[in-house]
Automatic annotation (TrEMBL), chains A, B:
Pfam families: Rrf2 (PF02082). Transmembrane segments: none annotated. This is Rrf2 family transcriptional regulator. One of its GO terms (cellular component) is cytosol. GO terms for molecular function: DNA-binding transcription factor activity. The lineage of its organism: Bacteria, Pseudomonadati, Pseudomonadota, Alphaproteobacteria, Rhodobacterales. It comes from Fertoeibacter niger. InterPro entries: Tscrpt_reg_Rrf2, WH-like_DNA-bd_sf, WH_DNA-bd_sf. It comes from the Bacteria.
Length: 147, 147
DNA sequence: GATTCTCGTAACTAATATAGTTACATGAAA
DNA sequence: TTTCATGTAACTATATTAGTTACGAGAATC
């Protein structure tokens, strides 16, 4: 797989679920869509379950489905549920022994925090329903190739 | 060392150079300031040299020094010279086979690009001279502990 | 000229993070 | 009872990054 894999895996799965809410998808099917392993899928979607974004059910006709209407789930919800922010402002040392380091940290951390805020603001403006809707829109071409 | 180590190593070194422009610092001294190895320092500062930010000289009284006045070197210059952006918007696949993936990529990449732009805008507003100046300002406490 | 100091760089090792895999337990429906 | 699905631990594989060793080359000093 690739980098940012958790977020893209999650969004991909949720986008499909948004097209058929209530109908469960198995880890196996999702794994095939993403060319990865069912266990990896469970690990990632487990994070979303902990945040009340999806539900999982065992046994026959079990699998994963949305816990809420797709229009109420934003990309920000998913991004934050994954818990691996792109920008992670963390001081190199809590008590910098050197003033240059302290000045540097302050500036860099502030810039990172603001960039992360911009990221989340964008993600808040987009819902899972929007992702699912993309398939109905003028993208029949891609739709034909999709699983 | 830690993550973001190249940028912090570079800014730390440049901050010190800004205090005594023209006076070279050796890789060894810089390495000690950062609890790392002289070779690592040369690798990082070599990137800055390629971008005309610092100069290196061999032999006696050699070492590293600023190639330009500290007030003309912004954090953005350094950040870009390092070549390891915090946000690296890169498509997971150039020709997504699934419309959900395509929609997701578009949204996520756009958000990342904007966040990166915010980051660079902040970094452009701060120069190496500002970092060096932090030592003169009301931080004598930390200054006493610094090398 | 020989020595010493410094960077330049290749090659290797170590540490870390991430993803992938195997294996097995648990629960639910057929 | 069988089958299907998740839950999770433990291990392996891979990639990235930093650290290290070693040695070459240039420049100043002795």
């Amino acid at each position: 797989m690739k980098q940012d894999s958790k977020l893209s895996l999650a969004l991909h799965a949720l986008g499909h679920m948004a097209r058929a809410p209530g109908q469960p998808m198995t880890s196996d099917v999702i794994a095939q869509h993403n060319a990865t392993n069912p266990v990896v899928v469970r690990r990632v979607l487990g994070l979303l379950r902990d945040k009340g974004i999806v539900l999982s059910e065992k046994g026959h006709a079990g699998g994963w489905r949305l816990a809420r209407p797709p229009a109420t789930i934003t990309l920000a919800d998913v991004y934050l549920a994954i818990g691996e922010p792109f920008l992670r402002p963390q001081p190199l040392s809590d008590m910098p022994s050197c003033a240059v380091v302290a000045a540097m940290q302050g500036t860099v951390l502030a810039a990172m925090a603001e960039a992360e805020a911009v990221l989340i603001r964008h993600f808040t403006a987009c819902t899972i329903a929007d992702l699912g809707a993309a398939m109905q829109d003028g993208m029949q071409q891609a739709m034909r190739n999709s699983l």
